[in-house]
Amino acid sequence: MFSLPRLSKAVLSAVLAITVLTVHTEAASVIPDTVSMPTPVFEPVFDCSFLFPANLQTNNFLDGPFGRRAFFPFISGNFTDSKTGELVATLLPALGGGFGINSTVDAKFYVDAVMVIQFVDDNEYAYLKLNGIGSVAGHASSFYLVMETASAARQELAGQFIIFSNIFLPADASPANETQAYFRMFAKAIPTTGSTTDMFSLSSLSKAVLSAVLAITVLTVHTEAASVIPDNVSMPTPEFETVFDCVFLFPANLQQNNFLDGPFGRRAFFPFIEGNFTDPQTGELVARLLPALGGGFGINSTVDAKFYVDAVMVMQFVDDNQFAYLKLNGIGSTAGHASSFFLVMETASAARQDLAGKFIIFSNLFLPADASPANQTLAYFRMFAKSSPEGSFLGQ
Question: Any idea which UniProt keywords this protein has (predicted)?
Answer without folding.
Answer: Signal
